[in-house]
Amino acid sequence: MSDNQKRILDMLAEGKISAGEAQKLLGAIGPEGDETRSAPPRSPKYLRVVIQPNPDAPENEDVKRVNVRVPVALIRAGIKFTSLIPAEASEQVNEALKEKGIDFDVRNLKPEDLEELIAALHDLEVDVQNGQEKVHVYVE
Amino acid sequence: MNCPPLILRLEVSRPEHPRHTILWLPIFLAWLILAAIFIALSPLIILATLVAAPFGWAKTVILLIPLVCNVICHLHGMEINIEKKDSVLFLSFK
Fold first, then answer.
1. How many domains does the structure of chain B reveal?
2. Cα(B11)–Cα(B24) distance, rounded to whole angstroms?
3. What interface predicted TM-score (ipTM) does this complex get?
4. Taking the complete model, does pTM exceed 0.80, yes or no?
5. 3-class state of residue A85 by DSSP
């Protein structure tokens, strides 16, 4: 808690200002001095993929529950394998992806880009509900 | 460089075997065996690199080993849990 916030709360306790005025003042000074907000975001350590039965769907015994935790460092290490893909193989992979409707060039996949992607994952959660299953992908 | 996972925790439970089996597998032994195999095969790997060089595959052969080691070393913390009605499979690299 910052000095300004403390002062406003003291004034409220002493009855110098009303609760509404204190709220307005606190809103005006914003989240200053709030260490939890100013701290840099923690880099994600794990990518979690959870597949659960859809609670809205009728109960089905065949539906599996899957919970996979992949270290982000492992993804980083794995992406380096792309440097080993020969140019001819990359073209074949790109063509195969295009056939599946994915317009993506694997040659553009670079470790530097991955760092950005991982940083962006911190604020991302993917929720997909598909019939019997519910898929939740997030980082922690 | 990170240390490769030393233990693999494996939990299995199947409907035909109601007992919940938990195994702590010392996979560091597998890494030791792999290292021994790698050392034994290193002359062949060098030969393969020399043969592959004119075709542009030498880089692939040379880089493959450190990259595989890198992946193995980052397996720490990997967990896979699959549950179905009466069966459970849980893998955790420690």
1. 1
2. 9
3. 0.82
4. no
5. coil
